[in-house]
What does this fold into?
Amino acid sequence: MHIEEPKLQVVLITGMSGSGKSVTLHALEDTGFFCVDNLPPELLLPFVTLERQHNASRVAIAMDARNASALPLLPAQLTLLKEQGITVKSLFLDATTETLVRRYSETRRRHPLSQSESGQSAVEQRRALVDAIELERQLLGTLREQAHIIDTSIIRPSQLQAYVKSLISVASEQLTLVFESFAFKRGVPSDADYVFDVRMLPNPHYEPELRLLTGQDAAVAEFLQQQSDVTQMLTHIEQFLGHWLGALTRDHRSYVTVAIGCTGGQHRSVYLVEQLTKLFSTKWITLKRHRELAEPPVKSNPATS
It folds into this structure.
């Protein structure tokens, strides 16, 4: 009797230093992945071959710009792994330069590419750190383009862990739609493929009885459903995505992140994300995230819903 070997799943984690790669590795380790940090790119193929010989099923590997000279090898290596029937997911952790500078200042860590020297003034040290961060962005640019981007600028480690776990749990063979609400006053998510601004819609914030509620509450939903502009906006976004999702699938996209932004990320954007998730979850795997609300992402799978 032939026993089929378990299919190996490889998650490659790259991204900016200080953006949360260690948190991501810990999240995957919690879900049963064998995790390796800072593996040199030259060892990726031999390492995966060894893990297959050991009948491993899930492996997570983190790499960063400390191996810059060998990073150009990765795209071809990932293609080869996929051709061998291995499931490969690439995650890129990112954050704004200002966020990364603040994190390094708070932890007093040294950036791996920093050229700062002892005796420099605070201004010179900051300039050296910013230069190192921008250099790292250039070195990792190609990998960023080929991965699913996670903007960690203003999310807590617990939120990042929950989001990573939800991403890894979905089937990689299908396109996954990620709907994310956010507040413009806290910045546009850099991981968004499409951004819709809904700040022109009627705002429940100015209704005293709705101000402390969110777009997940029935009273807010009822208020917004009565606004013709809100209904029209929902229809337009649905039609736009419905028209282009097929083309994105043919382009072999694994994830598409649709960000809906309002002023505070509490009412209008949250409501629209909730509605869009319901509309698209019957045909697509969907994830919803409310960046400004303290809750984990929720997955909808059309095969089980």
User: Anything to note?
Assistant: The radius of gyration is 21 Å. The chain has a mean pLDDT of 88. Residues 228-250 form the longest helix (23 residues).
